[in-house]
């Protein structure tokens, strides 16, 4: 779902242009990193799904998650660094839900947060692009949810609040 969501493309009729996440996302460590602020369990693997199937010296994705949820800023975990693509740490209590006793391996939910820029000027190019992108994001998530009825998907987008 995260990969699908971050690849959403929309068209802003108001601006007569295509909009992708990189156009509207908040980049928390810019100019050091131009990566969008995305916070999720997959970011412990820098959004590289291939790492989920990787085994290094007998250590797999679960070993990496256990390590990284304890040492969130570690540069070297069992499968690489623990920070997300932006270089920001992933806090277990932000990306996992349904927790009991802070045991992230027993979480019953995962949380994906995609940070999008905003403006007090509701007609600014930033807001117009964000509205277009978020509208398409909603369609994409609804389609994904319909195709995966075995997974409970809840979501929010600011455009739905306007």
Automatic annotation (TrEMBL):
One Gene Ontology term of the biological-process aspect is: sterol transport
GO molecular function term, any single one: cholesterol binding
Q: Report domain NPC1 middle luminal positions.
A: 2-158
Q: What's one Pfam family here?
A: NPC1_MLD
| Cellular component terms per the entry's GO annotation | plasma membrane
Can you name this protein? Macro domain-containing protein
From which source organism is this entry? Hydatigena taeniaeformis
Task: Show the taxonomic lineage.
Answer: Eukaryota, Metazoa, Spiralia, Lophotrochozoa, Platyhelminthes
């Amino acid at each position: 779902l995260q990969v699908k969501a971050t690849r959403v493309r929309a068209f802003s009729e108001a601006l007569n242009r295509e909009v992708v996440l990189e156009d509207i996302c908040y980049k928390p460590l810019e100019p050091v990193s131009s990566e969008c602020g995305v916070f999720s369990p997959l970011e412990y693997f820098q959004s590289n799904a291939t790492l989920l199937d990787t085994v290094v010296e007998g250590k797999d994705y679960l070993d990496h998650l256990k390590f990284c949820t304890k040492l969130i800023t570690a540069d070297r975990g069992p499968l690489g660094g623990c920070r997300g693509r932006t270089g920001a740490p992933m806090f277990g209590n932000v990306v996992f839900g349904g927790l009991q006793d802070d045991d992230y391996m027993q979480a019953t939910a995962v949380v994906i947060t995609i940070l999008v820029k905003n403006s007090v000027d509701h007609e600014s190019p930033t807001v117009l692009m964000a509205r277009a992108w978020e509208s398409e994001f909603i369609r994409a998530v609804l389609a994904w949810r319909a195709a995966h009825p075995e997974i409970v998907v809840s979501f929010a987008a600011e455009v739905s609040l306007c």
